[in-house]
């Protein structure tokens, strides 16, 4: 009896530690986020130190900039998590319009970097206009789904939801030429509609018909581009036969595969990569996973994938335990965003799909990306408190 009472007291103490004013706070999710952020900074320095020293005269150039954004993002987590997520929902429509407006103006006043006009520069501040769009579509569609309610059983409501997602998809693709982010936005849209809709059969039927039609359409589109130097066409050719195009689009893919293969099971050791030294162009961006495999081996790669898995699991737990549909949908949208981006990045690095330029969340270099990702985690933590 005494032992049972002791266990009860311990359980109550644990609950008190995990709550504040009667509200739960998911420290497991926070721990995953902090671990991924710290791991990302370590690997970013290991990957970028040589290039940073050569190009900018400081081996900590990329690390310092990313650390600043990470600290700002972690502060945003605290602020976002302390504010009731219903507050953000009130302004979701305005945020959606504003994010689409940013996509529109990027075409005309955008700042060009490496041949791509995807950034907006205001004084010393520079950010990718497509990053706010991902958060905006999660917030806006979640609010719309709650407002539609039982109307989702019909055809009109899901069609309206898809139309809003498709609009942002097209603006992102055509006005910023960022097809990879556009694909993520469309994936988030489809995931939210699928989870909210009471029936599964229409989605199975749509997938059964749409997938073959989509494949034929993509093949037709790629064929119409021809070998005219179009970079998307060249990426597909490099994906099919990277060795044949090793002097062009297949070079980065091959170097990434060499890095993965040379790492073996336990890797060459942190900082001992050879492929990062002028072999993989800008390895700190979308190809950083290949350097992780080279330096830490498959063990390090699976460790990272496992942390991402834990992150998804905690988001799913929060979604399932939320007492309101809107909070559940917010977590589903965030989880979909993370899952799609991680899967596509690893698929590109391993040459499973053509190169899309999608970065690895929390790990790849990119200040705008890490700030908005950490902001999304703060939003999920806000949901967990309810």
Describe the structure.
The chain is 72% helix and 5% strand. It has one domain (23-384). It has helices spanning 2-18, 27-56, 61-82, 85-90, 92-109, 130-148, 156-176, 179-196, 201-225, 231-240, 250-263, 288-321, 325-349, 367-384; strands at residues 19-20, 23-24, 111-113, 116-122, 125-128. α2 (27-56) packs antiparallel against α3, α2 (27-56) packs antiparallel against α12 and α11 packs across α12. The two termini are 34 Å apart. The strands form two sheets. It has a three-stranded antiparallel sheet. It has a two-stranded antiparallel sheet with strand order 1-2. The model is unreliable at 11-21 (pLDDT under 50). It has 14 helices and five strands. The chain is mainly α and 386 residues long. A hairpin with a 2-residue loop joins β1 (19-20) and β2.
Uncertain stretches of 5 or more adjacent residues: 11-21
Secondary-structure element pattern, one letter each: HEEHHHHEEEHHHHHHHHH
Biggest sheet: strands side by side, in what order?
Answer: 3-4-5
Could you say which overall geometry the principal axes of the C-alpha atoms support? globular
The average pLDDT score comes to: 84
Tally of strands:
5
What gyration radius follows from the Cα positions, in whole Å? 22 Å
Quickly give the structural class: mainly alpha
Q: Beta fraction of the residues?
A: under 5%
Q: How many distinct helices?
A: 14
